[in-house]
């Protein structure tokens, strides 16, 4: 066979057929990403912190190495000094973090049978868990009883219960990141770019679940304000955290144009919130969120097993009570930081992929003035 025909056939088989197939796939696939609100596409300098440590990994210690499977959230129990964290294998683990990392102790406490994400403490010593697959759980203080509090509102089931905060009157406030996609498929929620998230409350006395806000974009971390008047919650693809005033039922921007995609937010009891960002803003994330057709391609790729969600330059932003940035701790070589909180002189970080909790001594490795 003349070489010419051979190469034509080769070209046809190797390039044109796959190209035609992808065009057909693209056109007829029902996955239909939307434009994001325009303020999500603003990259302003307002949220640039005056202080920075861009070498989060330098000097970092790894607590519970090998014993903590993707510890997502971190909740510090002041009375016992224990850190509670939820792992991907369903375990809520308790960590006694000591000065020497190697002497730290990890205890398998309770397995929810789901995927514990957000953790908070109830008024009577119980542990409240936002379990991605199960809903909102109440674990008794002795760990012997796990009770499902709620897993639906207004007839719509939660698909991705994400984070929880407790008010001093006992009411629980929590987020469902998506009623459409579960944790395993969360990438599709981001690629689709539609608001499937809700902010809700659960009153343990009346046992009622109330929807406070609907149509939120992947509503993720949540924290109760120090004065108990409002919540602060994060919407990941919008790079924004908002305040929700509980009595007034009013929403206000807390911080926007974040340098990354916010996950959990934690109050440290000392005038600061810590906002974890599993990834910083990259060119690919920017393009994805600007152009729905790129997200459509990414969604199609994900359907066929190709992951184009790349996390890099993860970190934690410390802000004051008004949402004003104070310090950023991050590292271009680090990813998937999902939670951060200051306990004593240390910053503790949870994550989505490693088998440890990262700890940084903030006195030894402080954030410093930007050059
Ligand atoms: C802690 O354990 C790791 C791994 O076993 C070891 O490499 C390191 O030297 C230990 N550190 C201290 C301070 O003992
Ligand atoms: C959680 O369960 C315990 C009993 O194990 C109960 O005392 C407590 O009030 C419950 N908390 C909530 C928020 O329902």
TrEMBL record:
GO BP term, pick one: response to jasmonic acid
Main location: other
UniProt subcellular location: Vacuole
Keywords: Glycoprotein, Phosphoprotein, Signal, Vacuole
Cellular component terms (Gene Ontology): endomembrane system; vacuole
Domain Strictosidine synthase conserved region: 162-249
Signal among keywords: yes
Gene Ontology terms for molecular function: hydrolase activity
A Pfam family this chain is assigned to: SSL_N
Ranges in coiled-coil conformation: none
PANTHER family: STRICTOSIDINE SYNTHASE CONSERVED REGION DOMAIN-CONTAINING PROTEIN, STRICTOSIDINE SYNTHASE-RELATED
Family: Belongs to the strictosidine synthase family.
Protein name as annotated: Protein STRICTOSIDINE SYNTHASE-LIKE 6
Protein source organism: Raphanus sativus
């Amino acid at each position: 066979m003349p070489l010419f025909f051979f190469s034509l056939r080769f070209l046809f088989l190797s390039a044109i057929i796959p190209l035609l197939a992808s065009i057909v796939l693209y056109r007829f696939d029902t996955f239909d990403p939307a434009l994001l609100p325009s303020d999500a596409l603003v990259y302003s300098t307002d949220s640039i912190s005056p202080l920075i440590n861009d070498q989060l990994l330098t000097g970092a210690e790894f607590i519970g190495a090998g014993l903590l499977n993707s510890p997502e959230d971190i909740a510090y129990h002041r009375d016992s000094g224990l850190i509670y964290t939820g792992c991907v294998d369903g375990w809520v683990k308790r960590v006694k973090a000591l000065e020497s990392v190697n002497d730290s102790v990890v205890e398998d406490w309770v397995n929810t049978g789901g995927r514990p994400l957000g953790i908070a403490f109830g008024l009577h010593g119980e542990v409240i868990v936002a379990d991605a697959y199960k809903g909102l759980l109440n674990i008794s203080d002795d760990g012997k009883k796990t009770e499902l509090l709620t897993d639906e509102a207004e007839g719509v089931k939660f698909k991705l219960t994400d984070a929880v905060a407790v008010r001093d009157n006992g009411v629980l406030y929590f987020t469902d990141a998506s009623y459409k996609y579960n944790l395993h498929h969360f990438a599709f929620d981001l690629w689709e770019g539609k608001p499937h998230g809700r902010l809700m409350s659960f009153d343990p006395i009346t046992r009622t679940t109330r929807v406070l806000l609907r149509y939120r974009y992947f509503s993720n971390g949540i924290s109760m304000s120090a004065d108990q008047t409002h919540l602060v919650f994060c919407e990941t693809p919008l790079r924004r955290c908002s305040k929700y005033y509980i009595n007034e039922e009013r929403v206000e921007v807390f911080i926007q144009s974040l340098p990354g995609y916010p996950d959990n937010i934690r109050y440290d009891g000392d005038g600061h919130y810590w906002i974890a960002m599993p990834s910083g803003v990259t060119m690919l994330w920017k393009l994805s969120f600007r152009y729905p057709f790129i997200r459509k391609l990414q969604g199609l790729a994900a359907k066929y097993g190709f992951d184009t969600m790349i996390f890099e330059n993860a970190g934690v932003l410390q802000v004051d009570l008004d949402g004003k940035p104070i310090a950023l701790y991050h590292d271009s070589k680090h990813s998937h930081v999902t939670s951060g909180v200051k306990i004593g002189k240390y910053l503790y970080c949870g994550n989505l992929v490693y088998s440890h909790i990262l700890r940084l001594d903030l006195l030894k490795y402080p954030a410093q003035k930007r050059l």
